[in-house]
Design goal:
alpha+beta; Alpha-lytic protease prodomain-like; four-stranded mixed sheet; 11% strand; disordered C terminus
């Protein structure tokens, strides 16, 4: 039996300083600082002007702050080497932050919707002019952020995600501008809680997807864009492969997929089998981090997967003890 391992990580993760995201992490830090600063300004402005729409947009900006922070953290954490105690390094910190983020955002969205209901019935006075000025300021911050991230978004998925975060926040700022303008021109105060509800509802689906993604990673679920059965079928099409079993595919962190599998080979050249499968999995499924165990035909599985994979279980099969010699060793 041969245990052949491939532990080459994707280029976009190691070294990050040589990737598009790594080379532009300064731009990402600038946008994060701008967004976080203006989020605080919107909170203060919302309290001073009595505008729920501004507070809702600040809550929406909080999603962007967390998203930008996680994008930057993913780059920074990837620079830290793995240790014997943390063999995958610190990638999961990003996922834990996403989990906390989603729980906080559910609370914010719930508060916005609850408060908006009361304001629809009895709308308070809103200072539309300061509200309009603050919203325009948020719009300018978002435009600057988009400008800073634009070039990197074409080269890196990480930066593309950050770009889309800022773009979505720009939509929220436009909503607040519309609300402030209508209050100023018509005096229709109900527009403030209506826009707040729209922003709150806009937050919820994104928050749910973020929570689901974080839980899927923590539960080591197969990534949504990968079909494990399709992987098995493609691997078994390789001429030197007799069969494949005990496949596990999971996510370490965003964009970093790992996989293990047992491969029964019908050839004695295991190096060729491993190389062919690595090329297939990289080109067809984009999986770089692999651990493949190549076995000879008729090889008796060591039973390592039998407590994990239902396909390995044999109903009614008695437990087999490994005999021990007089020294007590198996």
């Amino acid at each position: 039996m041969a245990h052949l391992h491939s532990h080459q990580l994707p280029e976009q993760h190691i070294p990050p300083t040589g990737s598009a995201a790594g080379s532009r992490q300064g731009n990402l830090a600038i946008v994060l600082a701008l967004t976080a600063s203006y989020m605080l300004a919107e909170v203060v402005g919302g309290l001073l002007t009595n505008s729920l729409a501004l507070l809702a947009d600040a809550g929406h900006m909080l999603t962007d702050v967390f998203g930008l922070a996680m994008a930057l953290a993913a780059i920074r954490f990837a620079q830290r080497p793995a240790t014997p105690g943390k063999t995958y390094g610190f990638y999961r910190s990003e996922v834990l932050a996403a989990l906390v983020n989603s729980l906080v955002l559910f609370g914010i969205a719930g508060y916005i919707l609850y408060e908006a209901w009361g304001r629809l019935i009895d709308p308070p006075q809103v200072q539309s002019v300061p509200m309009l000025v603050i919203a325009f300021g948020g719009l300018l911050v978002n435009i600057v952020g988009l400008r800073v991230l634009y070039a990197g978004a074409e080269q890196s998925l990480n930066l593309q995600g950050a770009f889309l975060e800022v773009l979505s926040d720009l939509i929220g700022s436009l909503g607040v501008i519309v609300a402030a303008g209508m209050i100023y021109l018509t005096g229709w105060r109900q527009i403030d809680p209506i826009v707040s509800v729209l922003i709150g509802l806009f937050i919820l689906p994104r928050t749910f997807r973020l929570l689901k993604s974080a839980l899927d990673v923590l539960m080591e679920a197969t990534p949504a864009n990968i079909d494990a059965m399709a992987i098995e079928a493609e691997m078994e099409k390789v001429s030197s492969v007799a069969s494949v079993h005990d496949i596990h595919v999971w996510t370490i962190t965003s964009g970093f997929v790992a996989m293990t599998a047992h491969v029964v080979s019908n050839t004695h050249d295991n190096e060729d089998v491993l190389q062919e499968l690595r090329l297939l999995l990289r080109r067809r499924f984009g999986i770089e981090h692999l651990t493949l165990q190549v076995e000879a035909p008729g090889h008796a599985d060591d039973g390592a997967c039998c407590n994990m994979d239902p396909r390995c279980l044999m109903v009614g099969q008695p437990h087999v003890e490994i005999p021990q010699n007089s020294s007590g060793r198996s």
